Amino acid sequence: xxxxxxxxxxxxxxxxxxxxxxxxxxxxxxxxxxxxxxxxxxxxxxxxxxxxxxxxxxxxxxxxxxxxxxxxxxxxxxxxxxxxxxxxxxxxxxxxxxxxxxxxxxxxxxxxxxxxxxxxxxxxxxxxxxxx
Length: 132
Hints:
By secondary structure, the chain is mostly helical. It is 77% helix and 3% strand.
């Protein structure tokens, strides 16, 4: 266990705020992609992939929540394209022709969310809670 009681208050505050800042940043980027023209660009870029069509059939595109889920699901295909190719829901041409700026945004969102939750769970698991 890590005892944070001896650390300066500003360092403890930064350590506790960091995972929440990463989670909020990742969520805002995902929301921005889902609620703007980037969503249409993503749909056009994945036009040959059956995975996008399946996600749209399941979730629809009317609500912001469903669009965010679709963006998150398709980000998996960008981060780990071999999985999508093996399963048959991602076209090889789509991953090669995908816009670089949008790929960077989607990956940044996903990495912020994953690292934020990982840091949060590590802090919860390995810090010693003491009464001051």
